[in-house]
Amino acid sequence: MSNEQKLLKLIAQVEQVSPRLVDRWQTMAIIESLGYTDRIIAEEFGFADVLAIGEYIYQQNNPVLLTLETPQDTNWKKTIIAELYAFVEQFSRSFVYAIPLISLLILSNLEPSDSWKFIPPQLAALFTLATLASLITSGGFVQAIARRGEFYFGLGFPQQARKACVSLLSLGMLTSFVLAVMSLWFGFYRNLFPDQYLVLGAFYYLVLSLLWMLLSILSLLSIWGTPLTLIGLTVLFWMVRFKANLGALEAQIVAIFVTLIFLAIAVVILLRKRQLAHPIEGKIELPNLSATIYLLASFFGYGITYFCFIFADRLVAGWAVDAASGLIFAIDSAYQRAMDLALLNFLLAVPLSEYLAYRLIRYWYKQAQIAKLENMSTLSKQLNLRYLLLIGVILLFFGLLVASIIGIPTPKPWASTNPVLTLIGCLGYLLLVLGLLNAVVLFNLNLASSAIASIFPSLIVNFVIGYLAANAIAPEWAVLGLVVGSLVFMLLSRRKVLQAMQKPDYAYYLGGY
């Protein structure tokens, strides 16, 4: 029997075990299970080892791979449109959260004519705490809903997606309710705020928590649902604020409550539409609770830690208020405005960071599928060069943002209160953007544990450094915690990414692709 006939027989044996091969590693494992060693492969087939013949058989089983390295006629128009669509989709997911912040920044620079409508400092502090707490506690459930919903919708199982999202939403609201009750009890017991303020704050916290989680479900059902909702919320706030001549807080509560009602109706309608489009008979089964917790624990923890990290400096600065003021928590308005401007730059830079990470991972996956084992070092160098290029693009883009929003060397009027503090905050958020670039890459490689291991100790550093600086110097120096913590996060996550790039084929294989 000739070598060619032997090879055809081996291919038939392999395809009999698995008609549709997943990758060359699976092919190699099947060949070894059939009793072939590197020595036999070299003697009978003329290939260097089992991996070499496994790659050959895998390519024969997937003819499309044979043409990946050959030049193709490309429709550049369609390519550019597709890339623009991908960028706009990534950009819109984060930019929409900057719309309400921009609105508040503009509003804060208008001279108020109705000073009698200013809310009491204690109530303002309580609403600030409620807002931060809603983002932090719902952050984990938002991540869990997004991951589980994308998984089931991607498989074409909208019924399972609806049940999973509703279950996580119910669990999230139950958790928020328990935390609200515990906070009310503690506030009543310690007499931290007036009773009516505590009740208002708890209600506001629950409404916001529900709003964030419903927005997460809406983003799964409609690409433009979340942007339109937040734009509508901002427009409604301005209309109520000036047309109805209400105070800023009252207008904000009315706008959020009305938006929440329409949002809930829209989510119910869209879920019902998906359900009717894909009807199934029988009971819908989902994995048991322990399996769900195991699958979502890393994303849940990352969501909570992420929002804690962003607002750690404000929490520390708020608790470091002088006791002589009679308040237990208060954020100075100058510090609030300075950090809001820095946060605006962050929100505008995050979409670009996510898009660039998406481009890097897509290139990585494509090359890992076609690159040969002896070319892994070359692929590693190419990935490192692309990674450095992405960092350079982010640095340039962030610098342009700071120059246009704050104004260098002549600050804009709305940033003239404390431009130095704003620039320090921008430095902290720039380092955080670079850390998030690394985290997105790690998540796409199914290395969620590495992302958590990078951000959690950084959060501890953020709190400790911020607390020491705020209490030893002044509350506004809590921003140092953000800078140092973001630096630690960026360095730790960068090390994990570089380690993965040293063995790109192994990272690709470990990711399950």
| Oligomeric organization of the protein chains | single chain
On the 0 to 100 scale, the average pLDDT is: 80
Percent strand: under 5%
Count up the domains: 3
Task: Give the structural class.
Answer: mainly alpha
Intertermini distance: 37 Å
Order of helices and strands: HHHHHHHHHHHHHHHHHH
Number of strand elements:
0
Number of helical segments with 4 or more residues: 18
- Radius of gyration over all CA atoms, rounded: 27 Å
Account of the 3D structure:
The chain is mainly alpha-helical and 513 residues long. The chain is built from 18 helices and no strands. Helix 6 runs antiparallel to helix 13 and helix 7 runs antiparallel to helix 8.
Could you give a quick summary of the protein structure above?
The chain is an all-alpha fold.
Helix-strand layout with pairing:
Blueprint (H helix, E strand, L loop, with lengths): L2 H15 L6 H10 L4 H7 L5 H12 L14 H20 L2 H11 L12 H35 L2 H33 L4 H27 L3 H18 L5 H30 L11 H31 L13 H38 L5 H32 L11 H26 L3 H25 L6 H24 L1 H7 L3
Helix pairs in contact: 2-4, 5-13, 6-13, 7-8, 7-9, 7-12, 8-9, 9-11, 10-11, 12-16, 12-17, 13-14, 13-15, 14-15, 15-17, 16-17
Keywords: Membrane, Transmembrane, Transmembrane helix
Primary descriptors:
513 residues, mainly alpha
